[in-house]
Design goal:
Layout: E1 11-19, E2 22-29, E3 38-46, H1 49-57, E4 69-77, E5 89-91, H2 102-105, E6 120-121, E7 134-137, E8 146-147, H3 154-158, H4 160-173, E9 180-184, H5 188-199, E10 203-207, H6 211-219, E11 224-226, H7 231-241, E12 246-251, H8 256-265, E13 266-274, H9 289-292, E14 297-300, H10 309-317, E15 327-332, H11 336-344, E16 352-356
Parallel strand pairs: 9-10, 9-12, 10-11, 12-13, 13-14, 15-16
Antiparallel strand pairs: 1-2, 3-4, 3-7, 3-16, 4-5, 5-8, 6-7
Length: about 350
């Protein structure tokens, strides 16, 4: 017998995008679900640079309800859904690949036509919906639900998606234990890189302009943490690699000079991963002989890898990757606009910013 659905109101609060930098707290209808869909009460949603870019740059027409690093509690289950019940706490992935198309067969999941569709919504054109009280999870995104264990928090559930995106990139680098990696930028994503690489036995050289972030990097396993142009970085590369250069360079900030520095510090045959250069039309000078003759590989990594969900869950819920340390600011739903402002212009003491509906 299916457990009784939890009480759900007819209307809910939602932060609606009405134009560039225009977020309004409004009342909207709670989404209706189909027979193969689930309704989730949102408990927490992270503020992601991707949503910031859309909110501030007006990249998509309003109205929309953004927010996709989402975790919550199932309150209603369609009659044709199995394996889930009201009361289950879940982390959600708003993009799920088909695993059958040409892109998926090449493990280019972010290029899959189904993956590019957003399968979680709070209303209007689907856009994630995490900045609302309830979201509808469509059938094709049900495989993206991850159960949150009783001993873990919904904040940890919301961080599964960003950790997944980083682990995907780490796998692409193909590093060996004992290798050395430069991670430029120690915001939340850069720090996740630092931690995951360190867990794999990689010697990490972390750079950032903010001193508190350098201290965080050291606490998460970085061998060296300094300013990008600091002597410790250049000396450390020589010392840790015996002068050959780093095996990998991760650029976790959209700064062209960081790309040039990473390329110069990379050994022949090493790999560079661009993780933050998401603005279309961006170009930068590059000595192509370093790619051809020196075989320095350059790659991009965008979004998550569905097949890594179980590994990500083990890392996060075991707290080997303790994402709770990264969450420095929590805002209530009605202050989502302020949360976005802080995340877009972080202070020395701020890292991950989340919007919460109840304590995590």
């Amino acid at each position: 017998m299916r457990p009784t659905d939890l009480n759900v109101p007819r209307l809910m609060r939602a932060v609606v995008y009405r134009g560039p930098n225009d977020l309004r707290l409004e009342q909207v209808k709670v989404p209706r679900i189909g027979r193969k869909e689930i309704l989730v009460r949102v408990d927490v949603c992270g503020v992601c640079p991707t949503d910031i870019k859309k909110i501030q740059g007006g990249l998509q027409p309003p109205p929309r309800i953004y927010g996709h690093e989402t975790a919550g509690t199932i309150v209603k289950v369609g009659p044709n859904v199995t394996g889930w019940k009201p009361g289950d706490r879940v982390g959600m992935h708003h993009h799920v690949p088909c695993l059958k198309c040409h892109a998926c067969r090449h493990r280019a999941f972010a290029q899959c036509p189904q993956y590019k569709k957003t399968g979680i919504t709070a209303g209007f054109e689907p856009a994630g919906g995490g900045y609302a009280e309830y979201v509808r999870v469509m059938e094709f995104c049900l495989p993206g639900l991850v159960r949150i264990p009783r001993g873990n928090t919904v904040v940890e559930g919301a961080m599964l998606e960003p950790v997944n995106t980083v682990l995907k990139a780490v796998k692409m680098l193909g590093l060996l234990a004992g290798d050395t990696a430069l991670v430029t930028g120690q915001g939340p994503i850069g720090l996740i890189f630092t931690r995951l690489l360190s867990l794999q036995g990689i010697k990490v050289i972390a750079t950032d302009f903010l001193s508190p972030r350098l201290r965080w990097a050291k606490s998460l396993g970085a061998k060296i943490a300094d300013l990008p142009d600091g002597k410790a970085v250049l000396n450390g590369v020589d010392r840790l690699t015996r002068g050959r250069g780093v095996d990998a360079a991760v650029i976790a900030v959209p700064v062209d000079s960081a790309v040039a520095q990473g390329q110069s510090l990379l050994r022949g045959g090493g790999r560079m991963c661009l993780f933050a250069h998401t603005k279309r039309g961006t170009t930068t000078p590059l000595d192509l002989s370093t790619i051809c003759v020196d075989e320095k590989q350059m790659m991009g990594s965008y979004s998550s890898d569905f097949t890594l969900q179980k590994e990500v869950a083990r890392l996060v819920f075991s707290q080997k990757m303790d994402v709770r340390l990264l969450v420095t600011h929590q805002f209530p739903l009605e202050e989502t606009a302020e949360a976005v402002r802080l995340a877009s212009k972080p202070t020395a003491e701020s890292l991950k910013v989340v919007v919460t509906h109840k304590p995590g």
